[in-house]
Amino acid sequence: MNAVAEKWGLTREGFDKFLACLDPDRDKAGQRYQLIREKLVNYFDWRDCPFPEDHADDALNRVVRKVAAGEEFQDIATYVFGVARMILLEVSRNREKERVALLRQPTVDSFVDNQADELQARVDCLRKCLASLPDKDRTLILQYYEGEGSSKIRSRKALAERLNTPPNALRIKACRLRDKLGECLTRCLLGKRS
pLDDT tens digit string along 116-150? Predict the structure, then answer.
């Protein structure tokens, strides 16, 4: 069997087969589908599951997938609720894993201190790496990444015109400089940790 599970998406054909299993009359099948979905949402909600609508849809999608694959059921609604119980077990296991992981987390203060120290180290190294660039390259990379949104686009266009460089060539030059800075930053950070 393939190590990576095949991604499955809900198809109209699969959903139509599922509705046909609920009732031959499409309108009645649609009403029954809505009723089952509402009951599933309530089922997950009453059991204090986060995102009950998502879990309800997941249960229905899993059954639609089985129907699309050709499986037949005597009572499809009962099967849907069996799938919902299995999803509830999965949710409970995942919540327990998250709870245990949270208990193992370092305290917030130590995390914030470590994060602040790491951020300061990154800033120091970035300054050092920028200072190591020739003035022309340092100015170019700083101006290339200056601004946000549409102002950044206008700034880059003006920079390309000022340097009399096609925008694509400017982009390539900035990318190479960014890669060079990235390598310098990595070396600097490794040096600080050792």
Answer: 788 888 888 989 999 999 999 999 988 888 888 78
User: For residue 3, what pLDDT band results from cuts at 50, 70 and 90?
Assistant: very low
Other Cβ atoms closer than 10 A to 19 = 20
pTM of the model: 0.49
| Alpha-carbon dihedral 119, 125, 130, 131, rounded to 10 degrees | 130
Up-side HSE of residue 13: CA atoms within 13 Å toward CB? 4
Q: How far apart are the first and last CA of the chain?
A: 44
- CATH label, 108-193, candidates 3.30.1890, 1.10.287, 1.10.10, 1.20.120: 1.10.10
